[in-house]
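Troubleshooting: if your tokenizer reports a length mismatch, compare against these two reference records.
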Amino acid sequence: MATVSGHTRFVRRKAVLTASFGVPLLLALWAFVLEPASLEVNRYELTLPRWPSEQDGLLVALLSDLHVGSPFNGVDKLEAIVARATASRPHIVLLAGDYVITGVRGGDPVPLETIASTLAKLQAPLGVFAVLGNHDHWYDGPRVRTAFESAGIRVLENESVRVEGGGFDFRLIGIGDLWEVKPDVGAILESLPEDLAAIAFTHNPDVFPLVTDRVALTLAGHTHGGQVDLPFFGAPVVPSRFGERYVRGHVVENGRHLFVTSGLGTSILAVRFRVPPEIALLRIGSAVSSLPPVDLASSRPRQGSWWKSSPARRRLRPKPARSSPG
């Protein structure tokens, strides 16, 4: 019978110890440093039955939850976000709230006026529009609005505007933050003229059940995609009363369409795992037939395909969730 030498046992123990300590260290490095510091431009193609075919191809850059001043999200990162979003050549840029930090561990606050002036460098032929998030209201909502509008960024809070140019003509609706503004969504939508398609954007996706099919697409952020997506378990913490129902991606409920971006910064803890910071670039059409389906649950484009195209993921059954401020 063969025996195991002392040297072999030593090598095996060393390998076990290395794996026991090395793998957790690598995972921690990835979750607390590498992924939060990363930046992706993720491209999605959305099929919207209520979108007019003559306006197919509208390209929307959706940026949310920048939390400028959170770890790995200083002015340099903000400038990189602006440069990459502009380089993507969207027709319109929508900013979905939470630009500042409040109570983020390890954060280094950046002057609000610096944030606004940097975001003002964003370029899109149909304009740059913003709504405010809960952190912006906790910081000083009127001051945030003033800073943005002084920098030339139109802020829409429970109001709509007609957007037209380059063959596009639609209504853009900015819905105020659900937690802090508590908007009367029904009244906002009732005031819309019936002759144009409509896109709504807001900070908190929990407003979506109140949005009627008068709106072709609702866009939101706030959840950060949960910041952590554990294999087989999903996101352990989502700041939503619906759990993972609206955590991220394209969702369809009763013919109504929602897209939630996983955002760019971090809140509470500077951790991201399998939910990298993203600029969401959305190409909108009334029909998609030329591209293969891609699972929108993935945050990375399919190899060899520039766009992500998929029937929307359905999260129709609310799940209980442990919530934290988004």
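Reference record two:
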Amino acid sequence: MARIGGRVKWAPRPAAPVETNRVGSRRRRPWPVRRGGVTMGRMKTKRDVNAWLLAVVIRIIFALLQMFPIEWNLQTARLLARLWIWLSPRHRDRALAHLQASFGDAFTPVQLKRLAERCLASWTMFAVEVACMPRLINRFTWSRYIRLVNCEELIELIVGGRGLILVTGHYGSFELIGHFLASLGLPIAAVMRPFDNVYLNEYLVSTRRTHGLRLLDKKGAMTEAEEILESGAMLAFIGDQDAGRKGIFVEFFDRPASTYKSIGLLAMATGRPIVVGSARRRGIQAQYDFMVERIIHPDDWADKPDPLRWITQSYTAGIEQFVRQAPEQYLWIHRRWKSRPDGAGRRPSREVLPSPAAARG
């Protein structure tokens, strides 16, 4: 790292071998494919005319959004959510079924339906925030939009400069976390799954890198993860993705959910703390709470008989805690429980949910 003009920058590195997923290189390689500064591993990519046209349309929409105040755009997003429900009710039904399975009788059928609809509205607003965030939030303007909640210990850890692991979920405006910290000049890298559409991926990744956020493809990210933490930087993960049959099953809303082992293994290998937090929207305006839910220290798992399971369950419980505070801001259409622990060596079955009719009561 190098400090330039009071801001931490990633120092240039020598050319990396083919298998690396280091951000920043533009060299052409036969495989894997690097698009938008992120290596796209062995995955299907789309670069045909349709993919290009879709990317162009999205870039035009993003450009149009810059012409209006963020409050107007968020209001438009909520109107679009109603259109989404009308055109594709199956997404609302999936959210409704997940809510019912997770909260049981805590809400009435009418309340569950409203939560499902507000979930879709939250995610159309999230799309607007992704488009507008680089223009709105920087080191000079962040305090207009962001309020820090329970961040005292996090600040101490950052100042300590030993590196730490950030974990959040598909909740609120989660893209805000990396963007906000990078805009302050703090060294941070985020693990992401590149978009299949290489043209769209290149554009969206370029917007994420506006203020210095470094990006790693989740496939192969661990080859650099320890180096990043040893340099004193932060490494951010989305910790609520289905990990398939290779994951470790822990409880999430009282149901087993397959979860990636990489976060726990990385914490154990490096001895770095895990900070579980979120960026929750306040109301329907462009106002956010940057919140720390809990911090898991190496001493916490040192004496546990199965530290990997304990760590994974602990940060998953932290995600559940902040989701319960504002369940309408969680991505309930996300198939979090797609894999099921049906037995060792067996391919996990498809997610089993109540029928939409039963969920609606």
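Descriptive notes for reference record two:
- The mean pLDDT is 84.
- The chain has one domain: 28-350.
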